[in-house]
Amino acid sequence: MDVIETDIPDVKRIIPKRHGDARGWFSETFRVDALERAGIVVPFVQDNQSFSAPQGTVRGLHFQIPPQPQAKLIRVLSGAILDIAVDIRPTSPTYMTYVAVRLDAEGGEQLFIPHGFAHGFCTLTPDVMVAYKVDSYYSPSHDRGILWNDPDIGIEWPVGEDEAVLSEKDRKAPRLRDAGKLF
Q1: For position 181, what pLDDT does the model report?
Q2: Which one, of 17, 122, 139, lies nearest residue 69 by Cα?
Q3: What CATH code is carried by the domain that includes residue 160?
Q4: Residue 10 has what DSSP assignment?
Q5: CA distances, 85 to each of 9, 31, 94, 135 (Å)
Q6: 183 part of a folded domain
Q7: Range of 36's domain?
């Protein structure tokens, strides 16, 4: 398993090795010891999975606030996404910057997103299935979101506002500057 820093060093790309033969391939997608060697020491407690039928579906930008923040390990089971992690830690030197990584089922790459980041993605193909581990249980009272296309952050999404397929919750999320104290 290779672990690679992104432009924001706390967000890491994880590339599991695949061992192939005439039948296909095998891969270890999660190994605590390999992640710990790369400095990712996170006790994951819950697995989540989403399915998005239309291409251009945007989910996010979501996070949980303390004392129930969530670190996430994201991977795609079918299709492809542009995965986004936005630093929302006000004291961080990378505050309000983001990392965008293409994840797809074919390559098997994963993205680790630590506490203090908002997460979202846009489907690049139809029929996308995303699986992710979290280190804190879902807590509705700590669940938050910021506007997916907040102009202060300036994410370069692969869809425009009138093309994006969004939930009403995501469409009405506040801009980061209006979201209050988060971390």
Answers
A1: 85
A2: 139
A3: 2.60.120.10
A4: T
A5: 12, 22, 11, 16
A6: no
A7: 2-178
- Number of structural domains (the chain) is 1
119 is catalytic: no
Which phi and psi (to 5°) does residue 32 adopt?
Answer: -60, -45
Which residues neighbour 73 within 8 Å (Cβ) at sequence distance 6 or greater? 14, 30, 42, 44, 110, 111, 112, 113, 132, 133
Q: How far apart are CA 83 and CA 70, in angstroms?
A: 16
**What tokens appear for 62 in the block?**
């979501």
Which residue is catalytic, options 62, 98, 115, 119? 62
pLDDT at 180: 87
In a domain, 106, yes or no: yes
Q: Band of the pLDDT at 75, cuts 50, 70, 90? A: very high
Reply yes or no on whether 137 is catalytic: no
Separation between Cα atoms, residue 25 and residue 46, nearest integer Å = 26
CB atoms within 10 A of CB 163: 12
Query: Is there a domain that residue 101 lies in?
Result: yes
Catalytic residue among 98, 115, 119, 132: 132
Residue 17 has pLDDT above 90, yes or no: yes
Q: How many residues does the chain have?
A: 183
